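Support request from a user on the community tier.

User writes: "When I paste my structure tokens into the form, the page sometimes reloads and wipes my input. The last time it worked, I copied everything first. Here is what I submitted, just in case something in the input itself triggers the reload:"
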């Protein structure tokens, strides 16, 4: 870990480097926590795009009830750091992973999603073998067409099977209305969200009418939380990228501050309208949204190769020379954080902390 740079000005550190403005991130965390608290819905932020346990602890200190993870390996990292209430919003399948999950459930509370009887049975067996009951939510397909059981009776039937299993503890349902993000018009996105979430809430009510103990009705990512958090019957929201913001979420209307950036160095000025930096595709993802260079006036376009980020300006400019620094607002935080080993926490222009990105590479 590069503690050597702690106390240095951010423009003195080697590049490319992933940075987070601590003041902006902490303000985003406070805003998110207050928003959900005012709506009387709990916040369980997703950490797949953060991957830093120290940030998870800041979110919990601000009022989050726990965290959401995408992978078992991420949950193990967070549990080892002292996070003791985790939702894995994914299916954990296969003998080896299921054994790991059962062992982790003996250490901290880990709830996992299921959408098939086959997976529920292997989880049940693992729970019984370890002498524990694995908390389970049934994932409902509310229109995303990825994972999940059909809403209504199919979800009720799987919920009943889980509830009756000796090695499982049925706690509710979850869904993901991510398909609503395809709609750029806020009114259209709101309507699609409402349609999707109504399926989830109605399924939860059907389960309750069957005598099933639905304590959790979980949904809501950063691109949809503004709408999903307001829907009656939702108990918790999983939005995680809200603490960083990026070009992708900004295009969807998120107005939180841009806390996550990549610092780069100008390595070439071959033309008055062309600036080449040392941060390319290996430092910043550009598949979901294009990163944006800061403080350059009018930028015509940017393009990326493996190790180069090239900026074309509308007009000739000479205030960025070889060796100068350029910050980029990341295109999509989830797929940018995973490219880096460390995240530099910046306050008032200086490095305050360097965090190892401990969740990086935890794909299993």
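"...and here is what came back when it finally went through:"
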């Amino acid at each position: 870990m590069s503690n050597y740079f702690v106390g240095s000005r951010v423009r003195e550190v080697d590049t490319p480097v992933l940075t987070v403005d601590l003041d902006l991130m902490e303000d985003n965390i406070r805003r998110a926590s207050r928003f959900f608290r005012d709506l009387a819905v709990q916040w369980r932020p997703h950490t797949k795009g953060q991957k830093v346990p120290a940030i998870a602890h800041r979110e919990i200190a601000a009022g989050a009830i726990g965290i959401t993870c995408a992978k078992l390996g991420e949950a193990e990292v967070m549990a080892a750091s002292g996070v003791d209430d985790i939702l894995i919003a994914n299916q954990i399948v296969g003998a080896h992973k299921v054994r790991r999950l059962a062992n982790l459930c003996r250490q901290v509370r880990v709830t996992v999603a299921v959408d098939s009887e086959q997976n529920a049975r292997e989880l049940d067996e693992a729970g019984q073998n370890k002498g524990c009951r694995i908390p389970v939510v049934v994932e409902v397909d509310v229109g995303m067409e990825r994972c999940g059981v059909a809403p209504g009776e199919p979800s009720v039937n799987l919920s009943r099977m889980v509830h009756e299993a000796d090695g499982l503890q049925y706690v509710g349902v979850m869904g993901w209305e991510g398909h609503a993000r395809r709609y750029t018009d806020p009114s259209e996105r709101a309507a699609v969200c409402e349609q999707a979430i109504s399926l989830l809430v109605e399924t939860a009510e059907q389960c309750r009418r069957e005598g099933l103990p639905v304590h959790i009705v979980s949904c809501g990512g950063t691109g949809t939380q503004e709408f999903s958090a307001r829907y009656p019957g939702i108990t918790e929201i999983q939005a995680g990228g809200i603490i960083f913001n990026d070009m992708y979420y900004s295009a969807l209307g998120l107005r939180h501050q841009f806390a996550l950036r990549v610092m780069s160095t100008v390595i070439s000025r071959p033309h008055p309208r062309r600036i080449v930096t040392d941060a390319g595709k290996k430092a910043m993802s550009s598949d979901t949204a294009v990163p944006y260079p800061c403080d350059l006036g009018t930028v015509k376009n940017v393009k990326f190769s493996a190790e180069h980020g090239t900026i074309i300006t509308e007009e000739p400019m000479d205030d960025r020379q070889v060796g100068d620094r350029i910050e980029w607002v990341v295109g999509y935080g989830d797929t940018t954080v995973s490219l880096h080993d460390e995240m530099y926490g910046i306050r008032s222009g200086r490095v305050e902390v360097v965090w190892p990105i401990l969740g990086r590479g935890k794909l299993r």
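Agent notes: The reload is a front-end session timeout and is unrelated to the input. Residues 186-209 form the longest helix (24 residues). The radius of gyration is 22 Å. Escalated to web team.
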